[in-house]
Amino acid sequence: MISIQGKGVSTGVAAGPLYFYQRVKSTIRRFEVTDREAEWARFKAAQAKAIDQLGELAEKARAEAGDEAALLFETHQMMCEDLDYEEAIEAGIKEEGRNAEAVVTDTGAQFAEMFAAMDDSYMQARAADVKDVSGRIVGILLGVVQGGIDSEVPVILAADDLAPSETVQLDKSKILGFITEGGSGSSHTAILARTMGIPAIIGIGDQLKAEFEGRDVIVDGGTGNVVIDPDEPTRDRLMAKRAELIKRQELLNQLKGLPNVSKDGQQVRIYCNIGNPEDVHSVLANDGGGIGLFRSEFLYLNCDDYPSEDYQFEAYKKVLADMEGKEVVIRTLDIGADKMIEYFKLPKEENPALGNRALRICLNRPEIFKTQLRALYRASAYGRLSIMFPMVTSVWEVKEAKKMCELVKKELKAEGIPYSDEVDVGIMIETPAAAIISDRLAKIVDFFSIGTNDLTQYTLACDRQNNDLGRFFNAHHPAVLRLIKMVAANAHKEGIWCGICGELGADLELTETFLSIGVDELSVSPRAVLPLRQKVRETNVAAVKPKLVADLMSDEVTL
Ligand code: PEP
Ligand code: MG
């Protein structure tokens, strides 16, 4: 038995075979083949498999986001068997005798270049498609699986780290737990693991060896412990803990349907954070009161090209309809920093977290912003939508973004397309600048939602992706908590609500503080709803508030 230690970032105990995440290798070998017919047959088999995979993806997309979403994969299917494309590959293999991986890579690049040079913008956009299709076929030829998991049974997935774009493409039904070499508690992989309710351990370093692949592993996402080939007593102990956690969950389930009200009658809304329309299932299963943060950029991360207005409309509409009139706060595109998307072709930056990201991109590239806002307002006819802008630092940014909302509504009206007049427009408070001028910002928006992941990173000058900052990264730092208190007070002065949608919202050690500050909404991963409800119901705010607030505002020299 081997026991190794990382940092637990999503609780739960899971057991299964260890599986290393597979990436499509970027370098491919080039060589001359002796049997050209056999090589051609190898290509044809890979092509057929790609078509099958794309068919499955189309069905999945149709079920999750409608026909428009499925269309992308169906187009890719057709591209796989496009006659010109296939003929070029046949010539490369049969006439030139080159290996299939090399021929498909080169043909893909050639066709992409040809599409990119065309005048028609629709044809230009096909460049990314043909590259993607070729990448898929090459992946199959190399025996590397798209989506990273080639296993019949669910696995404990190990990786050096996972980019958000890789995480969204994983086949979630195959994952029992995550282990990553690097990462941090507020990285998007950790956030996703919590949303999915899957145990996750980060920062395992180089302790996982390649020879552990396929061996029995138990992970404890609470303690951060990973056991390879557990002996009998360890297995029994961890399985007993697993049973205990399941029992605790059953007890928590009894809180479903009960209000989030403290002992002395203070109410707070408990909403959920999601990244995909399919996450709505776990919101409803955990009795979330609404959605406080839909990270819309995950839709973009899931696509190979800019998602169309219709594609986005279907996804937003589905979430709103599935939530049946409960409030859904959709955040506009928040890419940049750790969430990079190739097709945006963003220039490389020295400090991406301080660079071109989120609302900044939307304001600089209004055509992208407008497409998203049109999709959002169209979807607003199907439920209770609120729109929220991320990464605000100045009043003018919010005014400019709101102007775009007005323009979109005017256009939709002129086109006779229905939308709701009741859409609230709010902002995330996740920069110290926004917190400090929240008195002014409160006058021009309908709500605030505090993004403590970024607010902590920017206030403490601590990279949220860096797990090595240790004691310097203190999410309970009084500077962050004082900013939250100030923001809530400024919101209330203007009669608007203030929520927290960063990971701190689920931190039960701070629930009493947040209630004392008067936070109106806590938006957390679905699995955190019931533990939080339990904590709220156990709290007597009036009894704890005077001391908590006095300690927070005290000038005593502590932390
Ligand atoms: C935050 O910054 O706290 C937040 C909720 O947004 P994200 O984690 O997606 O940056
Ligand atoms: Mg953020």
Summarize this entry quickly.
This protein is an alpha/beta fold and 559 residues long. The chain has helices at 36-65, 67-80, 83-95, 100-116, 121-141, 164-169, 188-196, 232-253, 280-285, 297-301, 309-322, 359-364, 366-379, 395-415, 432-436, 438-441, 452-460, 478-493, 511-517, 529-538, 541-553; strands at residues 2-5, 7-10, 13-20, 155-159, 175-180, 200-202, 216-220, 225-228, 269-274, 291-295, 327-331, 384-389, 424-429, 447-450, 497-500, 521-524. The radius of gyration is 25 Å and the shape is globular.
Can you walk me through this structure?
- Helix 13 (366-379) crosses helix 14 (395-415).
- This protein is of the alpha/beta class and 559 residues long.
- The protein contains 21 helices and 16 strands.
- The chain starts with a strand and ends in a 6-residue tail after the last helix.
- The strands form two sheets. An eight-stranded mixed β-sheet has the order 1-8-7-3-4-5-6-2.
- Residues 390, 430, 451, 453-454 line the site of magnesium ion.
